[in-house]
Structures are given as structure tokens and as C-alpha cells.
Amino acid sequence: MSSQWAEPYTAVDTENMNRNSVIVTFFGCVFACHAMSGKAQSATFAFVDNGYCKIALSGPIQSGDFQRLQSAIERVKRAGGSRFSVCLNSLGGDYDEGLKMARLLLERGVGTVVLQHRQCYSACAIMFMFGSFWGTDSARWPNRRLGMEAALGFHAPYKQGSDAPDPNATYSANFQQGVRAIGSFLTALHQSHSLGSDGSKFTIDRDSLDAFFAPELMAAMISKGPDEAFLIRTLNDAGRWGIDVITSSDTPLNLENIFQACHNASSWRIFHEAAEVLTRDQVSKWSDGADKPVILRQGRKTLAVLPGFGKNPPAEACVVEQFPLSDGRMHVNVRIVAKDEAQATPEPDNVPWSPEEIAWVRGYDESWYLLPPTNTLCSESCATVRDTPGQ
Question: Tens digit of pLDDT for each residue in 296-312?
Fold first, then answer.
């Protein structure tokens, strides 16, 4: 059964989806149940314009989906799309096909999104992590966003072996083959220059590859068998693995959440480790230090400069900006910069934004950096694996 195209796209009714979903208690059955039905279902693709994505993929990943995704990307680019993303909602499927699709996303500079209440497991999770955009000199940078209460789960590759004379031996062999396939995939990407499918060269050295898929995340993934998964459960999980969280908040900046945002940014981006929830005593101690924070307000824009944050304090500073976009919504940006690069004056409020700029900037709102890093991103109900509906 070939993958189907659906156009135009109709948004998922998440309430009905949750109410009518088939709950599967044995995690591994989710990936085998389509094969057990006698005829494998396949993914549905759609062209969308939901403020986050231009393409939506929903359902199990099967052979042939690489070509369909490639065709969809070409169509969007021909229509003038530059920085755009693919929305994913899949329990996984063919690992080999998923790895090819992951490399395609990396090569073409296409981002990935898992929206609120959607799911992305197994091969889908690998694809998600290689969402990217083109930077300067054709370098690729991570571009993947996860909605609140969206399930992103990793586990080692495997195949169902129940029809074999010795299912356990078959399972072990298939598991080893899957791990080798991922190893070969990552090894092939460990090149400073590789030729993309569009004919351009892109940079993907070891540090760049680690930014897409850290060795610690790979180790956690490989440790999980067919009946379990490593889930992104908290803001700490998302932050340390370089995953942006889709959220928005008009909460005014204050001393406590500014320091929390800077601590989160330093822990996640520089040290790649979990951040802690700061106490009022810690904030008071830091704010009374020799390099006092500077907080300026101009209209609805707030700029905070905190010296002494980063890998080489006090040579670095943290800058937190909160400003309104042209549509009235507030946006937060958190940066770790050299101290002499930290601006002391906020820009004017009336900077014009095009609709495309608003959509792009809104997708990278870092309001979630202001929150305690232990806050839940995916609750128990989110982590319950459900059979995904068509769209």
C-alpha cells in the first residue's frame, strides 16, 4: 500500500484523537501491529500552512517515503519556500527509510516539528533530530521544535521476528543490524564537507554532528529495547539535547526569571547538562555580586544584561530580551555573548516585521527558558503510546 497524499490539510481534533485512540500497553506491539494485520499501512503526506510547517507526515514510515518526502520538499522550494519545516506524527516504521529521510532533511536544510499532543517514536525520532536550517557558508544548524504534551521517544532499532524458527535469535540479529545501520549513518555524516542532494556542500564536522545527535542521547537510545523508550519528559531533557520547545508567554521579566533563563542557557548550550531550579537566595547572591545586572525597559521591550554567565566568566555575559512582534505577541530571546558585545540599549519598539519574519521568529520564542527546568514537558498521559490516526 503506497503512501497517500492528502490536500488540503485538516487539523487533527486532538480531543477526539485522545478519546478514540487505541491504547497499546505493550510498547513494542505498536510497531508490529500494522505488520500483524496482514497489510502494512503507510504514511500520509500533506501540504499545510499552519504557522509551523509546510509539509505534514502522519502514520508509519515505509519504503518509498524517502522519494515522496523528497518530491514534497522540491515542490515547496519551487514555490519559494526557503526556511520551512515538516510536521511529524508517527510511531516509527522502517529504520532504513527513516535514516535516509533524516539525511535528506539535513542536506536540504528542512526543520522538523512535533506539535502539541502528537507523537514521534523510533525512526520518526531520528528524523526529528536532524531537522536543520542553512546558516552562513552553507553550514547546517539544528532546527527542531517540540510542542507541550508532545511525545518524542527513542529506542534501539529492531524488527519483529515471530515468524522465524528462533524468534530470539532473529531479534538479536536484527537488533545488531539496526545498530550497525545507525553507526554507518553517523559515520557517513562525519565529514567536514559532504555533497547534498541539491548539489550544494554543507559543513558537518564532529562538533556539528554532536549538536544534532549527542553521544549521550545515542547511548540512552541504544539502551532501550522494543518494549520501552527514552522519552523527552522535562524542559531539562529538551534543553540539554538542543530541542526548542513551542510555547509563548507574556509574563514580564523579573530578576528571578532572568537569572533562571541565563542559568538554563548556560547549562544547556555550553555545558550540555541539566540545569537546576534557582532559589531566591542564589539569585540574591548573584545579583549582589561585583558585576551587577543591568535591566532596561523601553515601552514594551525589556533588555537584561547579566555579566559573569557562560563558559568563561566574567568575560562572557547573558542577554535576555523580551519584545513585541508586529502582531502584538511577546517574544523572548536568550543569548550568551562576549561581555563587550552585550548591548546596553534596547532597540526601538516600532521595528517592522513581515509576516514571514513573524512566523520564523515566533517559532523560536524562548519564553520557556524563563521557566524552572524541571517543569514537565510530557506527562504520563502524553507518554502513553497511541495508535496514530491518519491525519
Answer: 887 778 888 888 775 56
